[in-house]
Each structure stands twice: as C-alpha cells, then as structure tokens.
Amino acid sequence: MTQSDPPPPLPPRQPVEYGPGGPFASPRFDAYAMVVHLMGWTLFTTVILLLAVFIVPRFGEIFMDYRLDLPYPTKVLLRVSRFLTDGGAERFLLLLLLPVPFVHALAAGLLYPRAGRGRRLMYRLLVTLAITGVVLFVILALFLPYIALINAVSGNKR
Fold this sequence. Notes:
The protein is an all-alpha fold. The protein has one domain (31-154). Helices cover 69% and strands 0% of the residues. Helix 1 (31-66) crosses helix 2, helix 1 (31-66) runs antiparallel to helix 4 (99-111) and helix 1 runs parallel beside helix 5. The longest helix has 38 residues, at 117-154. The protein is elongated, with a radius of gyration of 25 Å. The mean pLDDT is 78.
C-alpha cells in the first residue's frame, strides 16, 4: 500500500439490538427486560407515592369537612394514604415490600428470554390490566364521594 492509495472502506455498521436476541442478551438472562421492569416499577411507585402523599390527603380533608358517608374504596384509599404519610412501624412494613420490584425484575430477566411469543403477550396484558386497575381504583375512590356530596348539597337523599 502506497501513500496515494485510499484506505480500505470500513464494513457497514450493524445496529445494536438491546432486546432479546441482541448481543447483550444471553439465552438464560435478559438484562434489557430487567432494566425495563425496574424502570416501570420506579415510575409506577413514584406516581402512586405522589398521589398518596400529596393529593389524597387533600381530598380526605375535603371529605371530612362535609362529614360524608364515604364509599368503601375511598376509605381504603384514605387509609393507605395515612399509612404512607404517618411515621412509625408502618414504614418498617413498607421496607419489607422493597425487594418485590427487584425480585420481579430479576424474574423477568430470567424468564422472559425463554418465554414464547404468546406468553410474552399474555404477560404484557396482565401487567397492563394490573396497572390500569390500580389507576381506575384511585380515580373511582377519589371521585365517588363527589356524587354523595352533590346529592347532599342538592338535598337529594337516595
């Protein structure tokens, strides 16, 4: 090769796949699935804690001011919020639940590469339904008492 010869062309770059089957996934463990599950748990926990610590107590004060007979889901949500905002032994119980996201993410990393397409779709559906169920429970628990409040203010006793 002389100085006037151009260098040989580089081979085309191959895109790096981070999902199952990529260079970072082994047949026994999928780190990508584990990281995605940990990020999902982090987002879900953050949203639930923000709701339980900042929003639900304000609704609880409003409901207590009107002395409404609250529906059972609202009572449960207010108790959970009180459990998370009060100090003491309750926080110790919360610390016992801390390993759950990590165990779930580790299990996903171990089991996801071996699962077939149908099992993966079923798993995604179940996770989506669980998250949607929790969100719907919170929404209903916070807004069902407004129906009782409207009936109390308008004078309807049903």
